[in-house]
Amino acid sequence: VALEEDIRAGITMSEFVLYFQPQFNGQQLIGAEVLLRWRHGSGFVSPDKFITTAEQSNLILPLGNWVLSQACKQLAEWAKRPETAHLTLSVNVSPKQFKHDQFVDIVLQAITSSGAPANRLVIELTEGVLLENIENAIERMTQLRAYGVSFSLDDFGTGYSSLSYLQRLPLTEVKIDRSFLHDIDSNASGASIVRTIVSLGHSMGLKVVAEGIESQTQIDYLKTCDCFLWQGYFIGEPQPIESLEKLLVQTN
Ligand code: G
Ligand code: G
Ligand code: G
Ligand code: MN
Ligand code: NA
User: Fold this and answer.
1) How much distance in Å is there from the Cα of 154 to the middle of ligand 4?
2) pTM of this prediction?
3) What mean pLDDT is predicted for residues 194-214?
4) Whole-number Å distance between alpha carbons of 150 and 165
5) Which residues form a coiled coil (predicted)?
6) Alpha carbon nearest to ligand 1 atom 5, residue
7) What number of CA atoms fall less than 13 Å from residue 26's CA on the CB side?
């Protein structure tokens, strides 16, 4: 309850900020994942410490709306300049947000009020919420897809659902869970699992993003798997918007 009160106060006091973790296609910067940070007291509180509470207390709804609207404002800014107009933003959406009756309207509202190009917005979801009520999930996703919004399945490979089930979802992308990337370095079966997941994703007609890249070895290996969509500390940490934009100048 104390944490819940702190989050409430944090929202009104504008203590929440967005960080942006770069995403690359090979050497080229193509966009970023939006990651919420809480500047509270003496330092930053990680989402791991507050997302669960925010989710339980419904505070994730105002917080999540804020993230979506900020991301859309950023996309609208980028759309004005040719150097940045191609960039995408991936926003994490929690189960409670996705299941909310107004979810589709909330996303459309964020897009419309900011003037963001909908086809630059990617929504990251996890398997559990999508399969809890698959018909409903398909309907919501299809409605937003019609406007150009894309969907990425986060933590791919850690769920338990059948592929035929997953294939029914109008996804555009999967993100290989970072535990598999980690295993490339630590054991032999890790490497073949990553290769299999990449090939599986491609055969489903999806983009495959490798996240949690922490070494050159992993990059070299991903190239041999025909996976060029990359995200991780080794190539770009989550950072404020200003430094992301500097990076753009350096990489283009
Ligand atoms: O950025 P970091 O690795 O600390 O994130 C920890 C967890 O919090 C990750 O699972 C990430 O998806 C989640 N997270 C980060 N930002 C957001 C956000 O804006 N909304 C939601 N729902 N989850 C987020
Ligand atoms: O599956 P197919 O033989 O069409 O694949 C041709 C090549 O393109 C393969 O190397 C495969 O990994 C890659 N590929 C297939 N589908 C996709 C896709 O949706 N996105 C990306 N980035 N690569 C793909
Ligand atoms: O659950 P999700 O995939 O959205 O989590 C994203 C989280 O992963 C962010 O909090 C981010 O800080 C973290 N992250 C990003 N890159 C790396 C990395 O290379 N290694 C590890 N261990 N975590 C990472
Ligand atoms: Mn994510
Ligand atoms: Na993930």
Assistant:
1) 6
2) 0.91
3) 96
4) 19
5) none
6) 47
7) 3
